[in-house]
Amino acid sequence: MRHAVSLLALSLLAAPALAADATGLDANDIAAAETLREQALAGSPAWDIVESLTTEVGPRMAGTPADARAVAWAKAKFEALGFDKVYLEPVTFPVWLRHRERAEILAPFPQPLVVTALGGSVGTGEGAIEAEVVAFPDLAALSAAPEGSLRGKIAFISNRMVRFKDGRGYGPAVGARSNGAVEAAKKGAVAVVIRSIGTSSHRFAHTGTMRYVPDVPRIPAAALSNPDADLLVHMLGRGKPVTLRLDIAAETVGEYTSHNVIGEITGRELPGEVVTIGGHLDSWDLGTGALDDGAGVGITMAAGALVGKLGQAPRRTVRVIAYANEEQGLYGGKAYAEARAAAGEIDAHQLGAESDFGAGRVYALRAGVDPAAWPVLEKIGEVLAPLGVATEREGGSPGPDVGPIVAKGAPWAQLAQDGTDYFDYHHTPDDTLDKIDPKALDQQVAAYAVLAYLAAETEVDFGRAPAKAAE
Amino acid sequence: MRHAVSLLALSLLAAPALAADATGLDANDIAAAETLREQALAGSPAWDIVESLTTEVGPRMAGTPADARAVAWAKAKFEALGFDKVYLEPVTFPVWLRHRERAEILAPFPQPLVVTALGGSVGTGEGAIEAEVVAFPDLAALSAAPEGSLRGKIAFISNRMVRFKDGRGYGPAVGARSNGAVEAAKKGAVAVVIRSIGTSSHRFAHTGTMRYVPDVPRIPAAALSNPDADLLVHMLGRGKPVTLRLDIAAETVGEYTSHNVIGEITGRELPGEVVTIGGHLDSWDLGTGALDDGAGVGITMAAGALVGKLGQAPRRTVRVIAYANEEQGLYGGKAYAEARAAAGEIDAHQLGAESDFGAGRVYALRAGVDPAAWPVLEKIGEVLAPLGVATEREGGSPGPDVGPIVAKGAPWAQLAQDGTDYFDYHHTPDDTLDKIDPKALDQQVAAYAVLAYLAAETEVDFGRAPAKAAE
């Protein structure tokens, strides 16, 4: 690293100072960004960061003892990486705990099933639930069932998430997870089981949040692995009643205050203006949270650290945020946005991006900014192009934890990742370190370092609330 | 199927009857075998048989209630497939039961681990075992440790099985599973954990048998998934003592008598001479035993059924055997061989083959027969060649349940399967129906039908004990 920095220093001296154009960036800035890119590709600390998080903390579900260990880990890691300023901000949320989960077919062909409770689910009580299964091809079909038609039954939603590079199969499928319990309970069901919202054919059940609404009974909700959902479909195909035993112990117990953990590279000219990158620090309890979202934390910590090791800091501050409790309701992102709004700091946010889609390579840059700032994005895109990243003016969306501050008017960028395999591992025990290709991780660090550095180096304004109101 | 059989009948009428050569097979025989091959490729009942077994029985560990259900299922399936003669033969063995298995790192970084008890292991007792982990790169290193050096410790064997098409990575690795407990106990260890004997990077622990010996303490033995073994290696790499908590409840309880289930296509001229094909009916308890060995049962039942639907039966009897309890010590194969020896029927065995290597395509025919019978094998190989099957005069080995009768002098054949992925699923919860490609299964049915039919149609003798003694 020392050698590369020296090369950069040389290039800063050697390059003629060109006048900045509508991008607010000159040749020195581009040279510095290119150096960051090449440094990251040559080997970034991202994989080591994820290795550290998954080994020394592991699963870190919000509100558990591992949550506090993760916060301490993140603070220490920011400090070790040389960030100028490291601090915590409180995030409060209800605590959900998973104690036990089992399912088995009792009749006509007894078999155990691989199941997991959905986040937020109530338990089945002391005696478990034994009831006949009624299958629906999707949530809409369940919602269309007559009132009372599922009294005493377990509803089963069997539709399968479709695999896409951009993960767009998730949206149409995830309603079964979010709303299945409410829709089933409205019809009188005593529980709901869904085919996992995931693309894997391995025998892992995918957890994830579900919700209840007032005035509808709270019934247990669980997901079967894809092979187990297949098995249940095959068994139901025999035309005989299928009886399932569901035994879930889970509870929501009080509140917990965790923290967003923040590391900054202080801007040299405009320290009050910030560019944020980050990932979420919490994970589900089943895996070690390597992909979701150790990768995002590692990528953005590494990218920020590379920027911090430049000869001089960029004009604006680069803020790396390890968000608390994304999984159970974007609590970290919401708390961050609310704290900024309360402090009158929304306008200080020049651009926000989050890495929360695993460890697949970045293939596109998209953004939600003032059109006057597009030349900057185009220029950033030129530096990203050798990474295989296309600049796309349409589409995209902010990362989940960036959404809340975007809703308050802040501009955003997205470095879209190849998510072809992401939903094979998402929210399962199989989300572990070995699924990460260190070279792919370095490509992402390169992209985030370039984006963060150039967005912080330019003086061009990325747009404020009025420009964003139409979104 | 009816249409194809009619075509076969036509071909039998139309083909000129050629004199049989050293192969004992004429053009009509070859035409019939080719028809069987094409019928199987056009769609065999094998996948439906595996679907039925995995759906209607599922996991069927020897000695559990599901064992009896599997035997009843197999008898009914043979009958439904039109076998001439269906019968059971008793197989007695000790019963091992798995009740509970959990592992977690207690220090320095608390994390749960995915673990499974090895078949035959004792439990850890009421209070579980909490002890420091001492790692060894392989079984030899453990065996070389000084006496008493592991007193009060848990030994961990970290070597990783290597992936090969022919599965030859299994042999060098599996000693850690078979003998790890004995070697660890000799050094004073209180338990042994191994990296799973498997090639998957998914978070499944692979079970499988282990053994104890007299005069060495019986200590619990368990396997970690590959990602969990990686995690433990990473954690040990920190240089701090690692404490593991292992909680296994398992026991060996008395004896059980299950059955080999046998279906026959009675030979038209030499019914007392038999060609056997088969798979094993039992599975481990973790998966549904689709690949291990539902596939072998389905392939060979389907192949036998196709032979049975020919216009006339082959000269010799084709016997399809669904062996009991292969997994815990080849009990079915041993009982079969002993019963034949007791009845003086070893010499009646003209060729034995077993499908027990998953559902990958067959790529080679190998055999252990009298050299005088090689022209028959070569001729069979010609009919198999369009399936992508090469005839190999060297190498190979009989299937596990055929081994005991081969040891008593019977000749054998092997239809070697592509096992590249087999050890990803072997002995894990992930051994489920969706891992089977129905078209690949049909290719294997084609190969087994051709082999069984032609070996039963020829009058050439495949060799007896004297010819086999050198093996």
Automatic annotation (TrEMBL), chains A, B:
<keyword id="KW-0378">Hydrolase</keyword>
<dbReference type="GO" id="GO:0005764">
    <property type="term" value="C:lysosome"/>
</dbReference>
<keyword id="KW-0479">Metal-binding</keyword>
<feature type="signal peptide">
    <location>
        <begin position="1"/>
        <end position="19"/>
    </location>
</feature>
<protein>
    <recommendedName>
        <fullName>Carboxypeptidase Q</fullName>
    </recommendedName>
</protein>
<keyword id="KW-0333">Golgi apparatus</keyword>
<keyword id="KW-0121">Carboxypeptidase</keyword>
<dbReference type="InterPro" id="IPR007484">
    <property type="entry name" value="Peptidase_M28"/>
</dbReference>
<keyword id="KW-0862">Zinc</keyword>
<dbReference type="GO" id="GO:0046872">
    <property type="term" value="F:metal ion binding"/>
</dbReference>
<keyword id="KW-0482">Metalloprotease</keyword>
<dbReference type="Pfam" id="PF04389">
    <property type="entry name" value="Peptidase_M28"/>
</dbReference>
<comment type="subunit">
    <text>Homodimer. The monomeric form is inactive while the homodimer is active.</text>
</comment>
<dbReference type="GO" id="GO:0070573">
    <property type="term" value="F:metallodipeptidase activity"/>
</dbReference>
<keyword id="KW-0325">Glycoprotein</keyword>
<keyword id="KW-0732">Signal</keyword>
<keyword id="KW-0458">Lysosome</keyword>
<dbReference type="GO" id="GO:0006508">
    <property type="term" value="P:proteolysis"/>
</dbReference>
<keyword id="KW-0964">Secreted</keyword>
<keyword id="KW-0645">Protease</keyword>
<feature type="domain" description="Peptidase M28">
    <location>
        <begin position="260"/>
        <end position="444"/>
    </location>
</feature>
<dbReference type="GO" id="GO:0004180">
    <property type="term" value="F:carboxypeptidase activity"/>
</dbReference>
<dbReference type="GO" id="GO:0005576">
    <property type="term" value="C:extracellular region"/>
</dbReference>
<dbReference type="InterPro" id="IPR039866">
    <property type="entry name" value="CPQ"/>
</dbReference>
<keyword id="KW-0256">Endoplasmic reticulum</keyword>
<keyword id="KW-0865">Zymogen</keyword>
